[in-house]
Amino acid sequence: MLAIPLTDTLNTIIKTEPTDDLMVPLKLEDTKNISRSPQPQSRRRRRRIEVLLPTRRQVYGNNLPVFENASSFIDSKNLLKLIIKKEEEKSSIFLPFGKIEIKKEEMLSEDVVNRRIAHVPSFDVELDPAMRDVTTTRLFTSKTWGGNTQDTFPRIRQEMLDRHGMDDFMYLNLYLNPHAPQWPGAPGLFFTSSVDPNAREWPTIQRVLVRLKTNRWLYVGQYQCTPAPSLTPDEWTSQSPKVKKTWITKVSTKGWCTDIRAKIVLQKRLGRDPTAEEFQDAYDSEEKFHATPEEVHRAFDQGHAFIQAWCMKCVGYDENFQREIAAGNAAN
Hints:
By secondary structure, the chain is an alpha+beta fold. It has one domain (about 70-330). The chain is built from 13 helices and 5 strands. It has helices at about 5-15, 55-60, 75-95, 110-115, 130, 140-145, 160-165, 235, 240-255, 260-270, 275-285, 295-300, 320-330, and strands at about 170-175, 190-195, 205-215, 215-230, 305-315. The protein has a 5-stranded mixed beta sheet, with helices on one face. Helix 9 (about 240-255) packs across helix 12. It is globular, with a radius of gyration of 37 Å.
């Protein structure tokens, strides 16, 4: 038998093995260059959400108010929480009633409203919503506590007043007063027209009920009305034509706008602004003053007529009063 050296046998075996072109011989010194860092692990993406809150200057513009007590102004963070809370409360309260009836022609611009109401806080009403949200009718309140069914501030006859002692009713129709409080404890605004550029101090706390829709009146609380700045000529000019037409029509026709019509007539008659005494004598007379819509429009534009404003802040809630409403209006 022919003996084959061992080295030749190994060489023969290696040569007969199939070659792999992808296999590259690796020298020992090459291993020093291999990175030994661990494989990167997948990481969760983090998203940042930036919320930009308005400054007081951005909210009020150049009409930045001065508060006697700085704590009475709600800072931006609390204001944002308040807005969210209001929206949640409105959803829970008004869903049973459906859509509130509001006349868009009565709605002043948002900047006019925000400048006057942004600092007014809500009042927390603790009464069970099932009872708090029961509505009533003017007929029921008239029969139960007195007063007619039409006036904003009905007079209570003495017989009824002696029985319950409440002479503070204020009824606001949201269809005509869309900036009034819209749910229990909410802040609001009350507007009216006058020849006086400054709203006067309100003499008493009012028991406020608001009309949501036909035969649906909701008690919203006890309200303190505080004078707010009247609309400036620029604010009046910036209102939509429909809003201005609505106010002009009111002043031209409504009995509670006699003072503006009287001033317009006296200005034409005297050729100048009347004195305070001349105006009061004419206003107290039985003369019927008439002014055209064009004259009323001009009075607003020239600063002879004004839209006054009051902030409405809820300072209390008469739970027993609402319980009486709920007991007498269980079907509402």
